[in-house]
Amino acid sequence: MNSTINDFLVKHSLSESAIDIQALCDYFISEMNAGLEKRPSSLAMINSYCNPVEKVPAGEKVIVIDAGGTNLRTCLISFDESGNSILEDFRKTHMPGIGKKISAKDFFSVFADETERLIDKSDRIGFCFSYAAEILPDHDGVPVSLSKEINAPEVVGKRLGKELLTELEKRGFDVSKKKIIILNDTVSTLLAGISKVEELGCEGCIGFILGTGTNTAYIEGKTIINEESGNFNLALGDIDEAFLSSTLEPKKYRFEKMISGKYLGPGCLFVLKQAQKEELISSRTTLPENLISADVTSFLKGGKSALDTLDATDRETIEKLIKAYIRRTSRLVAANLAASVLKTGYGKEKPVLINADGSTFYFVPGLKEQTEACLSAFLREKGRSAVFTQIENSPAIGSAIGALSI
User: For residue 302, how far is the Cα from the chain centroid?
Assistant: First the structure.
């Protein structure tokens, strides 16, 4: 790599060497402990009030609502005698509040619209909510903030389950016997992973999501804890700070904005524009006004993207800068996961199972492989180990398991 590129990366804290995994892991654990003890912390460490069932009952259908970072999915899920999931009547639409501000009334109206067709088919509802929410002992949830650029501020502070059932009741449905559980998507991913722990020769389980947003869940004692790891307050370089200032609520979800798919493209674009200002990229190249994660992935794979108009020299420079950004991202992810593995206390005799979900983790070239290598090397020094698995439709499956536990 050119010394000028190296100098640029070091100057702006964009190189992988800028990430001291041990120091970052220690900081992560200190924030986790503070959150558990209800001391000031950037990690909420939310009690899920959900314990996995020993055996999932066969044949009982569950209504599943999966409110993801970009998409809202609804379906029915049941399980056969072997514990395999059966999905029926699946439908997907966009999450409300993306691109424009929406009221709480309209927000819950969209959810009711998507649930109506299923409401008479089960009395159990597993509601997967991919945003920070305080989970209550009665299994309802109250959003404390909305990330991933969802613009629905009135929803914060409202009881999700109660609001949804109230809206359905207004439409004439009998909801008196409905049991609803609100689960974070990472908690649901963990629940889906637990069923594979013994089969894969592991002990302990971590749920991890790196898609539009990011989060981590692990088991503290017998309690599943939603870390809200995307809100981890990470000190960053000047380009990172400039990028964060361009987002909604710049002081919140800083870690998510450094590693997740919603922000990968825009973050890279800030790096490229600064590189052009410092003449690493020539004025011959017109950088796009907007860049999304899919553009970055396509560019690295040699496909069409918003970066297609580059000349050969600039293209090579941009490729090196983006790959460096992804290498740094992989070290950030590895530190996040290492902290969670060490907190479980497992991984000495058998590896900890990490059920990882999310398109960013799997589709961004090099990210998964570099994260695995980095995490493995770090844990080996600690006498620990972990293995990754991917269970299709984990948030939905785990939400159904959660609903069957109440």
Answer: 27
Cβ-based neighbours of 287, under 8 Å, separated by 6 or more: 269, 272, 273, 276, 281, 307
**What is the mean predicted confidence (pLDDT) over 350-371?**
97
Q: Model's pTM, two decimal places? A: 0.88
Contact between 191 and 402 (Cβ < 8 Å)? yes
Instruction: Tell me the pLDDT of the chain averaged across its residues.
Output: 93
The per-residue DSSP string of 53-68 comes to -SSPPSS--EEEEEE-
User: Are 57 and 48 in contact, with CB atoms under 8 Å apart?
Assistant: no
Cα 60 vs. chain centroid, distance in angstroms? Answer: 29
Rounded Cα–Cα distance for residues 129 and 125 (Å): 12
DSSP per-residue string spanning 270-296: HHHHHHHHTTSS-TTS---S---HHHH
249: DSSP letter: S
What lies within 8 Å, CB to CB, of 103 at 6+ separation is 152, 154
Q: How far is Cα of residue 51 from the mean position of the Cα atoms in its chain? A: 21
Strands 205-210 and 352-357: parallel
Per the CB < 8 A criterion, the answer to whether 298 and 265 are in contact is no
Quick one: which of 395, 360, 394, 28 has its CA closest to 227? 28
Distance CA 184, CA 214 (A): 11
Report pLDDT for 1.
57
DSSP secondary structure letter of residue 397: H
What's at 284, amino acid-wise?
R
Angle at 260 between CA 259 and CA 261, to 5 degrees: 130
**CA 136 from centroid of its chain's CA atoms:** 22
Judge whether residue 346 has pLDDT over 70: yes
Query: Is 90 exceeded by the pLDDT of residue 176?
Result: yes
Cβ 44 vs Cβ 21: under 8 Å: no
Beta-strand pair 352-357/386-389 = parallel
What are the C-alpha distances in Å from 248 to residues 84, 219, 253?
40, 31, 10
Q: Quick one: pLDDT at residue 310?
A: 79
Nearest one of 118, 204, 109 to 403, comparing CA atoms: 118
Query: Would you give the end-to-end CA distance of the chain in angstroms?
Result: 56
Residues 386 and 376: their CA atoms lie apart, in Å, by 7
Residue 165: helix, strand or coil by DSSP?
Answer: helix
Which class for 38: exposed (0-12), middle (13-18), buried (19 or more C-beta within 10 A)?
A: exposed
Cα 376–379–382 angle (5° rounding)?
155
